[in-house]
Specification:
Blueprint: H1 13-34, E1 47-48, E2 55-56, E3 64-68, H2 69-75, H3 80-84, E4 90-92, E5 102-104, E6 112-116, E7 119-120, E8 142-147, H4 151-154, E9 161-166, E10 177-187, E11 192-203, E12 206-217, E13 221-225, E14 234-236, E15 242-255, E16 258-272, E17 280-298, E18 301-320, E19 323-344, E20 347-363, E21 372-387, E22 390-405, E23 418-420, E24 423-432, E25 437-448, H5 452-456, E26 458-461, E27 466-469, E28 477-489, E29 493-512, H6 541-547, E30 556-557, E31 569-593, E32 598-613, E33 626-635, E34 638-647, E35 663-674, E36 684-691, E37 715-723
Parallel strand pairs: 6-9, 27-31
Antiparallel strand pairs: 1-2, 3-8, 4-5, 6-7, 8-9, 10-11, 10-37, 11-12, 12-15, 13-14, 15-16, 16-17, 17-18, 18-19, 19-20, 20-21, 21-22, 22-23, 22-24, 24-25, 25-28, 26-27, 28-29, 29-31, 30-31, 31-32, 32-33, 33-34, 34-35, 35-36, 36-37
């Protein structure tokens, strides 16, 4: 139950200036750090495939992170959110061990697009934080993150950013011969067992690929009590078990720079919902992918690329074994056509068309979102032109989005059809201060259509402990985002940092209610007193609050939506208000020792995001400030890593939200790397990894379950990775 907390005050000019001091200090420090070494360097040549123009992260105006190779192996966790949570500017929604979606600069859910090889994950993970992403991290070869609005390329669901998981399922080149990877590990906490297998065979123009991965873990150990009020399980988080499995098969025909490939893959998961003692989700998805690339098919055209995917997805939320509750189904197909043209009047660019059709349904007592059909069609154009000291980039996208609710069982419509026409554009430039130093400035105006759950939700959502109410007349969100970034790379020092301000008009978010009414707007009464006015069903928060006086306590209801101060569910509304997010993110790495048998590197990172309403007060579930340091020694085939992260307390919370305490995260790794064969595609290794060595009580401010379900305590993993 939420604590009684004082109403948040609007930030004064002095308070805002104080909060911005870390941003100013960070911006000032990056150029100074870059002067430490001017040695020659070969820049990172990893191409960011989430960008259709085929650029490296240094060449992109938008801040981009690529996690791959040994770094990905070290950071790989059970969910995509956990895998990326220690990257600057990124956190996770954290819903126990089974579900965790990335949070980018305070944005999550339908504002962060999660992709597999450039096409949507085609699941329902954006509908609710207890829904898992239908992508197995165990098969990932690389994960790309585009921070900030990426709406020009991927549409309005990418207003907060994009996470693109790359695997070998859509080959664009042939790797002659037989290659494979076998990985296995065992974790002491929860008897966590993981395994993954990947096999590739290339001959002539043909490339074949097979992969499989699986994980099984029991309820995990925690330091202390599960609940902050001390009324939960002790030493173990009940109902936190999880089990996942995935398979994939693909074939590609490659001729020069052209290719045609298709893939069939499956993903399944069964995981507990820690908010309830016996409830769990059983998820199953089958996915089909197709990709075709034509290299220079006509004069003036560099490439034509088509990507398409469709799926069959369902998951059932069980109240207990043999007691199925709500069934969620999602039938979705998405396709993209990208045409890259050769330089014309100095401009090189890409024209694209994207189509997305989604048929979503929820059947059962907890069907808090009605069955809907969503269609999105978008066209975009992005152009770039080099200039004497850098590059200029501009782009525009226009979408037509339609959300249609289906008739309910009683023959009524849950709400009217909604049509949106979001228009987005961006302007940006890279200024090369030197061969090693780049200044990046980017402005974007990104619009987002409301999602089905934001419009039509109405009902109990036991997994999150809420009763949700949508906002049927929601308007288009409009985000004006400006960011200034700096990066320096040489053979010894690497520095990256970004300052950003994202001002969002008509920001849609879930907010607690303080009105004393039933969920349908009828009289409920604070502490037994009846309200003096009746409100229409699914009424907006502002109208409800006008009906009665507030008492400073978040309203609770039972599963039928009746007001009850001791009810199991928190009453929450989707509401709109003008908001802003601003902050900084930065990281630096320095090779202390690089010559001789011993290598030693030092890493630093830090970030801060502030989310607040323009009228005053904070936004809920925003990532707190963080700072971290790591040291990586190496001696021949022996590698080690020690990293420490301090996550500070989240004291900027809403008036009806609870404070989140800070915590310390210490991770240690040791590995021995070797080659099984001279022509092996990657190193093999034996490893030992220890996570949360301090056994700290970790509760993430971004999680709905922060007061009920902490992250796992101390864990030790032993494992191997064999590559041929």
């Amino acid at each position: 139950m939420n604590s009684v907390l004082p109403q948040g005050r609007p930030a004064s000019v002095v308070r805002r200036a104080t909060r911005l001091l870390p941003l100013v200090a960070a911006a000032a420090s990056f150029p100074l750090l870059s002067m430490a070494d001017e040695a020659a360097v070969e820049l990172d040549t990893i191409t960011v495939r989430a960008n259709p123009l085929g650029k490296t992260s240094d060449e992109l105006v938008q801040p981009t992170t690529v996690v791959d190779g040994d770094e990905l192996n070290r950071k790989r966790r059970g969910t995509i959110g956990e895998t990326l949570e220690n990257e600057p500017g990124i956190s996770t929604t954290d819903f126990g061990a089974g579900a965790g979606r990335p949070v980018i600069r305070g944005q999550a859910g339908p504002r962060v697009e999660v992709l597999e090889n450039g096409i949507s994950s085609l699941d329902v993970s954006d509908v609710s934080p207890d829904h898992a992403v239908g992508i197995d991290v165990g098969n990932a070869r690389a994960i790309e993150v585009l921070r900030g609005p990426a709406t020009l390329i991927y549409g309005s669901r990418a207003l907060g950013g994009v996470v693109n998981v790359l695997n070998g399922r859509l080959p664009t080149s042939v790797d002659d011969g037989f290659h494979g990877v076998l990985e296995g590990q065992f974790g002491s906490n929860a008897d966590d067992r993981n395994g993954a297998l990947e096999l590739d065979y290339g001959i002539g123009h043909h490339q074949f690929h097979v992969d499989a991965a699986g994980r099984k873990a029991s309820d995990y150990d925690i330091p202390g009590n599960a609940r902050v009020d001390g009324e939960g399980s002790e030493g173990r988080l009940v109902n936190s078990r999880t089990q996942t499995n995935s398979t994939g098969f693909s074939y590609g025909y490659v001729s020069g720079g052209s290719s045609l490939s298709f893939a069939v893959s499956t993903f399944g998961a069964v995981y507990g919902l820690p908010q309830e003692e016996t409830a769990f989700i059983n998820l199953d998805q089958t996915r089909y992918d197709l990709q075709g690339i034509l290299d220079r098919p006509a004069p003036g055209i560099e490439s034509v690329k088509f990507r398409g995917a469709f799926n069959a997805y369902d998951h059932t939320e069980f109240e207990a074994p043999e007691e199925p509750g709500t069934l969620f189904r999602n039938s979705q197909n998405q396709s993209r056509l990208e045409i890259v043209h050769a330089p014309l009047f100095g401009f090189r660019g890409v024209f694209g068309v994207q189509h997305d059709f989604r048929r979503f349904s929820a059947i059962g007592e907890e069907a808090f979102v009605p069955s809907t059909r969503t269609t999105q069609v978008g066209v975009f154009l992005i152009e770039e032109r080099p200039w004497a000291r850098g590059k200029f980039e501009a782009g525009v996208r226009v979408n037509r989005d339609t959300v249609k609710p289906n008739f309910a069982d009683d023959g009524t419509l849950p709400g009217p059809n909604r049509d949106f026409t979001p228009v987005s554009f961006s302007l940006g430039s890279i200024y090369n201060l030197s061969p090693h130093d780049h200044l990046k400035v980017n402005f974007s105006r990104a619009q987002r259509s409301a999602a089905a759950e934001e419009l039509f939700a109405f009902g109990p959502h036991l997994a999150t402990g809420t009763f949700e109410r949508g906002l049927q007349d929601a308007s288009i969100e409009t985000a004006n985002n400006i960011e200034v970034g700096f990066d320096h790379h040489d053979d010894r020092l690497s520095v990256e940092g970004t300052l950003y301000l994202n001002s969002i008009r008509n920001y849609l978010f879930l907010d607690e209610v303080d009105a004393g009414l039933n969920a349908d707007g009828s009289s409920g009464g604070h502490q037994g007193e009846q309200a003096t006015a009746r409100a229409p069903a699914r009424v907006a928060a502002a109208e409800v609050d006008a009906a009665v006086s507030r008492d400073g306590i978040a309203d609770r209801v039972d599963e039928d939506g009746n007001f009850d101060p001791d009810g199991d569910l928190l009453l929450v509304n989707y509401r709109q208000a003008n908001a802003r997010f601003y902050g900084f993110e930065g990281q630096a790495a320095y090779r202390l020792l690089r010559d001789g048998p011993l290598g030693l590197s030092l890493r630093l990172f830090g970030d801060r995001v502030i989310g607040e309403l323009r009228s005053g007060g904070n936004l809920p579930r925003v990532t707190p400030a963080r700072a971290g340091v790591g040291i990586d020694p190496q001696y021949g085939p022996f590698h080690a890593s020690l990293s420490y992260t301090r996550v500070f307390a989240q004291n900027d919370f809403t008036s009806l939200e609870t404070r989140t305490a800070g915590y310390n995260l210490l991770n240690i790794e040791a590995a021995y790397r070797f080659k099984l064969a001279a022509d092996a595609n990657a190193d093999s290794e034996l490893f030992l990894r220890a996570r949360n060595v301090l056994d700290d009580d970790i509760r993430r401010a971004t999680s709905f379950l922060k007061d009920f379900a902490p992250a796992p305590g101390a864990s030790v993993y032993v494992g191997f990775r064999l590559a041929i």
